[in-house]
Amino acid sequence: xxxxxxxxxxxxxxxxxxxxxxxxxxxxxxxxxxxxxxxxxxxxxxxxxxxxxxxxxxxxxxxxxxxxxxxxxxxxxxxxxxxxxxxxxxxxxxxxxxxxxxxxxxxxxxxxxxxxxxxxxxxxxxxxxxxxxxxxxxxxxxxxxxxxxxxxxxxxxxxxxxxxxxxxxxxxxxxxxxxxxxxxxxxxxxxxxxxxxxxxxxxxxxxxxxxxxxxxxxxxxxxxxxxxxxxxxxxxxxxxxxxxxxxxxxxxxxxxxxxxxxxxxxxxxxxxxxxxxxxxxxxxxxxxxxxxxxxxxxxxxxxxxxxxxxxxxxxxxxxxxxxxxxxxxxxxxxxxxxxxxxxxxxxxx
Length: 349
Description:
The chain is 25% helix and 27% strand. It is an alpha/beta fold. The protein folds into 2 domains: 2-150 and 310-342, Alpha-Beta Complex (Quinone Oxidoreductase, Chain A, domain 1); 154-288, Rossmann fold (3-Layer(aba) Sandwich). The strands form 4 sheets. Strands 3, 7, 8, 9, 10, 17 and 18 form a 7-stranded mixed beta sheet that branches. Helix 4 packs across helix 5 (179-190) and helix 5 runs parallel beside helix 6 (203-212).
């Protein structure tokens, strides 16, 4: 089988690997579509992020859908030929955090395409993949396999909403309208947010944000002072979601979020210096959010039932043999939102 493997910064290859057979409780899946995530781009461009670095060749990818090609012993809920979304979350279910229901903090997490541990956890950008039965989520006939591959980034947004607490009837600000921000906006609409203002530095992602449910959009390049009006009377927003990874965006949020408001940091950025006096005097809450686990099933249900339409987020679909071009396209935010790779499972079905 073929796999998209990062060997070093700017060294991405389509390598040949041995395919595996499913064991008890496992499925063999032909991967259909895989979405390129920001973390995949960090590995491709820089060899990692923060202190995490690739120390050996690693297959990338964790946003995938596929078609079951074979089932192992004791598998009862899936059959060959079934179309599925695949959760990349593989916790141990036994450690203290899993026992507390915090599976995303599992001490033995095996999340696809992660160099956080060594040997690295190989990613899902492979023509054939062996998964555990609990990772598979059935699709209905109306949902395309391309849309199904959005379940993972949608899950990230849904977990962020969980971290914020209730957003029902709230005034919400979203900074950063890439795929995560756009899908988050759709989730906020489902969760009953009263008003959603979306902010970015480019028009294309803001246009997508409007399609996903934003009430108002602001381009801070053409309207650099547009947020100032929201800082009047100690702020206008009850909740802010920061999805760009910019420390400037977090600092700006301190001005426009109301006293006792919540700021949820989603985007991965570098270290940041915050004016703690402002955080203290307004009694603001700054919360992190990391991956997901139970939200994946909810994301698939939303997509299956048409409660969230992810199509506007998918800007390009590129064939497997053009993988490097797909990664370079995904890095160009002026023209790309979610870039997906077509692994050819549908054509060979």
